[in-house]
Amino acid sequence: MSADLSDLYQQVILDHNRRPRNRGKLPTANRSAHGDNPSCGDQCDVFLRLDGDRIAEISFDGSGCAISQASASLMTTQLKGKTAAEAEKLYADFHEIVANGKEPEEISDLAAFAGVHAFPARIKCATLSWHAALNALHGEPVAATTESHTD
Amino acid sequence: MSAIPTSWERIREEFPILDQQVNGHPLVYLDNAATTQRPRSVVAELDRFYARDNSNVHRGLHALSMRATDAYEGARARLTRFIGAAAAEEVIFTRGTTESINLVAASFGGANLRRGDVILLTEMEHHSNLVPWQMIAQRTGATLRYVPVTGDEGLLDLSDIDRLLTPEVKIFAFTHVSNTLGTVNPAADLCARARRVGAVSVVDAAQSIGHMPVDVGAIGCDFMAFSGHKMAGPTGIGVLYGRRALLDAMPPWQGGGGMISAVDFFESRWKPSPERFEAGTPNFGDAAALGTACDFLDALGRERVREHDGALAREAYERLAELPGIRLLGPAGERGGLVSFAFKDVHAHDVVTFADEDGIALRGGHHCNQPLMKKLGLASTVRASFYVYNERREIDALVASMRRTLRFFAG
């Protein structure tokens, strides 16, 4: 297995793909958003319970490749308890990781996604759930599509 | 025109692109349903045309323009023979299958569809034979109906066809070979059924034209659409075949130079087909090379191409069936040159990424077939599609790569 491919499919990613965290609809959600990648058929719904400005609870549901499912799962563990501003900052960092392979400033499981940058076609897999989460956060319960963004 | 290879034994030498390493492995190109590769003869014809004859076609009074016109109209004559059309006027050059179907939908559909009319499609249509009909239905007030697909075996369910194909149906458009299932539909039978209720038939031949003998007379269709790049020809060129009587009654769908017999400040008169439907400078260079692709396929023998591609697809189907957790789509027996499948626990895009590391080009996704995938309860499948240069050892490579991927994700 090549270094690129083992970087892409790191243990953290495989683990989240096999045992997704916070998967399923959140009954107490007061925000949600749907995201899809029309070209590959990946879909992701993100459900939030916002408590003031803070994400009290978060879950996702959807279907897609290991990268998209693991990213959604890991994202839920990272965003829980964060404020909107902290979530925005975290996504900015995450985008730097997946798009440019940049190491995160603080030690984080998100670093597992650094291998994605060697596979440009897969960046949108990793960012789909984040787009949906940010849309949900901003009270825009509309379909997110990564293909209208510049990843 | 360059020499045409007739040897199956040395066929890979005609496709220099195959002779390369991808990620440290010999390239195994199994994405032929998306686009085939082109033989040396087709690339040489492009080179020859642009190096010797290039000039704008029609109306030219100088030597190069006459040569370019000969090349373009010679290609039309070649395509006419290739599909068994009655006359060259029945062969319209387009950008490809999608444009061909849009042309029929906009021109024939726009002029003939009324509220209450029905367009009959099947559940296995590619978006290119679905979206244009949705668009013209919205414009005209016509409605859509679908012939169902039986399920994973991927056959058209014709048990209810008489209730679907009624006199309200003005157009019956269907694919000859499914790009997702590999199903070969009974095109001649379906066209005959359409004729009996007075509907015109539109055959999407994108996945059949390069893989088997296709004769519009034997099929009995009113329209047929196909692309050059799926039959060893260039990109950006394709054909709409239409029966002369229908074409002559159809309005143009684009206006411009080349398609008019007279232009006044306030109105114009149209030339007959094919010029009426070829506004603007046509793609003569690629058309010329598409004629060469016809020569290439006829030299190989299209019946043999059908046997070759079908045999590889059937063998791949049988061998893949041994893999754990696999779900194979399409008929188990007779099929076009492709196989489509999904694994229970590994997503198609992960499979394709792993295969790429083994130098194998596959396609994963919904294959522009979202309604069918939804019906089958699938988000995506992996597709391996074969062509004249593929070999049995490449099925070995495919199966080995699938096993490796399954092992990896099984942890």
Sum this structure up briefly.
Chain A has 151 residues and is an alpha+beta fold. Chain A is built from 5 helices and 4 strands, in the order H-H-E-E-E-H-H-H-E. In chain A, a hairpin with a 4-residue loop joins strand 1 and strand 2.
Describe the structure.
The complex is a heterodimer of chains A (151) and B (411). Chain A is of the alpha+beta class. Chain A has a single domain, classed as Sufe protein. Chain: A, CATH 3.90.1010. Chain A is 40% helix and 19% strand. In chain A, strands 3-2-1-4 form a four-stranded mixed sheet, with helices on one face. In chain A, helix 4 packs antiparallel against helix 5. The radius of gyration of chain A is 14 Å and the shape is globular. Chain B is of the alpha/beta class. Chain B has a seven-stranded mixed sheet with strand order 4-10-9-8-7-5-6, sandwiched between helices. In chain B, strands 13-14-17-16 form a four-stranded antiparallel sheet, covered by helices on one side. In chain B, a hairpin with a 2-residue loop joins strand 1 and strand 2. The longest helix of chain B has 21 residues.
